[in-house]
Amino acid sequence: MEMGAGMSSRITFQFDAKLAYQEEAITSAVDLFRGMSRKADSAIYRNLDRMQKAEYEPVRNPPIIPETRLLNNLRDIQVRNSLFVDQAIMNNNFSLEMETGTGKTYVYLRTILELYKTYRFTKFMIIVPSVAIRKGVEKSIDMLRDHFKALYDGLDLKIMHLSMIPTIPRK
Question: Which positions ≥6 away from 97 have C-beta within 8 Å?
């Protein structure tokens, strides 16, 4: 952080878009869908042009139908990252895991932008355990906004959140 003559009261941070371990994590997530059909009737590209009825009404991404290509991509990524190799995909669930202090928030936000850029995925859920962490994520998005716009030709992230999720009481 630098402040010189005519100091601004706004602190600005500089982010490094070329950290190898972060780029590898982003590439791993994007490569999961590599080679999947881009035909209009394909599972991941069907109905991309659906219209929303209201500005804040969510529209789901098209469903991803498990296929051999997806499992092979997952295995290739696991081998490339020296991880145990899965024998099956369970309910299209995947996780990216990183150590504390490695920039997970930066990586998953940038992964969202890469998945949009590459596959036109438009809906993502970020689930956090507390209001404090949600506020931290929102602050990160705000701090990274200009950085991401520079990397992605002006593309911006729109935040929509549900503050409370009803739970079923345990008996």
Answer: none
d(CA 151, CA 17): 8
Rounded CA gap, 135 and 46, in Å?
34
Cβ atoms of 77 and 31 closer than 8 Å? yes
- Close Cβ partners of 86 (under 8 Å, ≥ 6 residues apart): 71, 74, 75, 78
| Cβ-contact 44, 34 below 8 angstroms | no
- How far is residue 119's CA from residue 77's CA, in Å, rounded to a whole number? 18
Q: Dump the DSSP string for 31-93.
A: HTTTT---STTSTTTTTTTPPPSSTT---PPPPPPP-HHHHHHHHHHHHHTT-PPPSS--TT-
pLDDT in tens, 49-103: 444 455 555 566 666 665 688 889 999 999 999 999 998 887 777 777 888 888 9
Prediction pTM value:
0.73
Specify whether the CB–CB gap between 47 and 120 falls below 8 A. Answer: no
Calculate ∠ Cα 89-91-32, nearest 5°: 50
